[in-house]
Design a protein that fits this description.
- This protein is an alpha+beta fold.
- The strands form 2 sheets. It has an 8-stranded mixed β-sheet. Strands 10-11-12-9-13-16-15-14 form an 8-stranded mixed β-sheet, sandwiched between helices.
- The radius of gyration is 18 Å and the shape is globular.
């Protein structure tokens, strides 16, 4: 379900973001081997099935895990279970992601960000492709006892992503409920370069192309999007969307919890019911309503 509204993002809104936000990454490696072995599987139950190109997990890399839990618990109703330096995020009873606290070594403020995990058929072959295309392998490949074999990579523009062959299979596919992840997209200066890089990395079979937006498709399902941006400070940034009932009604909570509203519903004529926010530590997040196929509406899954 691609967030089409981003194609109509007002240029002055993006410029304002650049003037006030620090968007440097704050993760350069996977957790240490002991901690990596404790990372939970991406699916609560073993499925024995894999879906290349699908985003199967999201981790929030943040300098303040306690602040993150306060923000997302208050905003999305998520629950949390902490195990040493890692926190599992639950939407109702289902795990949907994690929080990893990573304090920058230097004293300057660094914004938090969401780090996506993409399912790939074979991690080592994917790593070779990353190197061939001018990307970097930041950590791994490594075998994680519960999660599977993975590596942390960056694309040619520096966008960071975990690639994973989950040990027991990817999570079951279902229409996203309220509080679930709805969509994820890469912001890039070079649309063609990003498309060529991710098309093979995620084994995408087809795509829908627009002037500034590409939808990546596999197994007949829309998996992720790539959006052309104009400002260099945003290149290589994966931004997730969470399904909510009414973004406008959440704005007062965003402010009360210390977050920032970058784009309020109604500021983009193309999609007046969607918001772009950041949490108390700067991680960007899209708040978007969506009607499921069960109700006869909504985008193609």
């Amino acid at each position: 379900m691609p967030a089409y509204w981003l194609r109509f993002f007002p240029r002055f809104i993006v410029f304002g973001l650049l003037a006030t936000a620090v968007l440097a990454g704050c993760v350069s490696s996977l957790p240490g081997s002991r901690q990596a072995d404790r990372l939970p599987p991406v699916s609560a139950a073993a499925t024995g099935t894999w879906h290349p190109g699908r985003i199967v997990w999201l981790d929030l890399i943040t300098p303040d895990a306690a602040a993150a839990m306060k923000f997302y618990g208050g905003l999305c109703g998520w629950r949390f279970k902490s195990e040493e330096n890692y926190t599992i995020i639950f939407n109702h009873e289902r795990p949907i992601g994690g929080i990893l606290e990573k304090v920058p070594e230097k004293k300057e403020k660094v914004a938090a960000q969401w780090l996506a995990t993409m399912s790939v058929p074979e991690v080592d072959a994917a790593v070779d492709w990353v190197k061939e295309q001018g990307g970097r392998v930041l950590s791994g490949p490594v075998d994680m006892a519960r999660r599977g074999r993975g590596a942390l990579i960056s694309d040619p523009e520096g966008g960071r992503l975990v690639i994973l062959k989950a040990r027991n299979g990817d999570p079951p596919e279902k229409d996203p409920g309220i509080g679930d992840w709805l969509w994820l997209e890469d912001w890039t200066l070079n649309l063609d370069q990003a498309f060529n890089f991710y098309r093979k990395l995620g084994s995408y079979e087809s795509s829908l192309k627009g002037k500034d937006y590409i939808v990546l498709i596999n197994e007949g399902k829309w998996r992720a999007g790539i959006r052309r941006i104009r400002e260099a400070a945003f290149k290589g940034r994966w931004v997730p969307a969470v399904r909510v009932e009414n973004p406008r009604q959440m704005l007062s909570r965003v402010k009360a919890l210390g977050g920032t509203i970058w784009l309020a519903p109604g500021e983009s004529p193309a999609n007046p019911d969607t918001a772009l926010i950041s949490d108390a530590n700067g991680a960007l997040l899209i708040l978007q309503p969506w009607e499921s196929r069960e109700n006869g509406k909504g985008g193609k899954p």
